[in-house]
Amino acid sequence: MKDESDTHGEAVRLRFLKMHGLGNDFVVLDARGRENPVTPQLARALGDRNRGVGFDQLAVIRDATEGAAAQIDFWNSDGSVAAACGNATRCVARLLMEEAGIFELAVVTGRGILRAERASDGLIRVNMGPPELAWDKVPLARDLSLDPLPLPGAPGAAGMGNPHCVFIVDDIEQVDLQKEGPRFEHDALFPERTNVEFVQVFDRGAIRMRVWERGGMITQACGSGACASVVVTALRGLTDRKVAVYLDGGVLDIDWQDDGVWMAGPTALVFEGSLSPEFLGALT
Questions:
Q1: Alpha-carbon span 154 to 143, nearest angstrom
Q2: pLDDT tens per residue, the chain (284 residues)?
Q3: What is the rounded CA–CA span in Å between residue 122 and residue 191?
Q4: Measuring CA to CA, how many Å separate 118 from each of 123, 229, 274?
Q5: Which of 7, 84, 153, 176 has most Cβ atoms within 10 angstroms of its Cβ?
Q6: Domains and CATH numbers, the chain
C-alpha cells in the first residue's frame, strides 16, 4: 500500500484501504517508514461520506514500538482521537498477519499491547484486555459505583480503552437510538463523552446490541461496545462470560477470560484507492 506519483509525476497520491468488520467500516492508512500524514483536518475530510471516503474510524498503521508488529492509531470522523477500536484492530491485524505470513501477533494501541490471532475458521480474534471497572479509568466525572449509574434507565459503565454506557432494555427495537445516543454521549457524567449501547438479553449466551458511538453516529457494529456489554450483563448475572452478540451488521463472539476480553468475528477488504492531489491540496 505504498504511495505513488500521479500520471504526470507532479504529486503524491495518498493510498488507503477500505475495510469493514460486520459493517463497522474503516479507512486504513499505512504510515510506516514515513511521517504520519494524518491531522484532525484530514481525518474530518476523509471521514465525510459525501465529499471524502467515509468511515466509522480511521486506522493509521505506524512503525512498531515495544516489540509489537505495528502501532495503530484510531481517529473518529469528527477529527478526534480514539484509544481503542476492536473491529479496526481485527482488520489491521489481518493485514499484518497476511503481510508477514503468520497467524498471531501483537499490536500497540492506546489501549496498550493487544494480541491478535487468526482462528481455524478464518475469523480474526483480538484480546481487548481486561475491562476498566474503576470510576476514574472509564472515566467518570466523579467517584461513583459503575452499576447502576445515576442516570435514567439505570445503565452500567465499563471502560475498554474507551468509555461505554450500557443500558439493558426489554425491546431494543423500541429504542430511539438517534435521540437517546447523543443525549447520553454528552452527559456531564462522562468527561470524555461516551459510547452508548442498548442491550436486550436473549439468554445466558446471546444478547442483541445496538450502539451510538461517540463522535456522533449509529454504527452497524462496535467491537469494544460488544465487549463492554458482555462485561455489564455478566456482572449483573444476566449472562455467562462467553456470549454471542447480535449486532445490526452481524455476530461477534465475546469471551471474557482471565487475561482479558477476547473478541472474534469476520473482516472484509473492500477496495484499495488513493486520495488525489486535488483532494489533499484542498486541505492546505
A1: 16
A2: 656 544 434 446 799 999 999 999 999 999 999 999 999 999 999 999 999 999 999 999 999 877 899 999 999 999 999 888 999 999 999 999 999 999 999 999 998 999 999 998 889 999 999 999 999 999 999 999 999 999 999 999 999 999 999 999 999 999 999 999 999 999 999 999 999 999 999 999 999 999 999 988 899 999 999 999 999 999 999 999 999 999 999 999 999 999 999 999 999 999 999 999 999 999 87
A3: 39
A4: 6, 24, 28
A5: 84
A6: 4-128+267-281 (3.10.310.10), 156-257 (3.10.310.10)
85 included as an active-site residue: yes
The three cell numbers of residue 258 are 482471565
The DSSP element (H or E) to which 255 belongs, if any, is strand 250-257
Contact partners, residue 246, CB within 8 Å, separation at least 6: 202, 206, 207, 208, 209
Confidence (pTM):
0.91
With H, G, I as helix, E, B as strand and everything else as coil, classify residue 189. coil
| Residue corresponding to grid cell 484510531 | 74
Q: Are β-strands 206-213 and 195-203 bridged in parallel, bridged antiparallel, or unpaired?
A: antiparallel
91, 165, 222, 227: which one is catalytic? 222
Cβ–Cβ < 8 Å for 70, 32: yes
At position 52, the amino acid (one-letter code) is: G
Catalytic pick from 85, 91, 165, 227? Answer: 85
Catalytic residue check, 222: yes
What are the φ and ψ backbone dihedral angles of 111, each rounded to 5 degrees?
-80, -15
Q: Which residues pair with 81 in a beta bridge?
A: 75
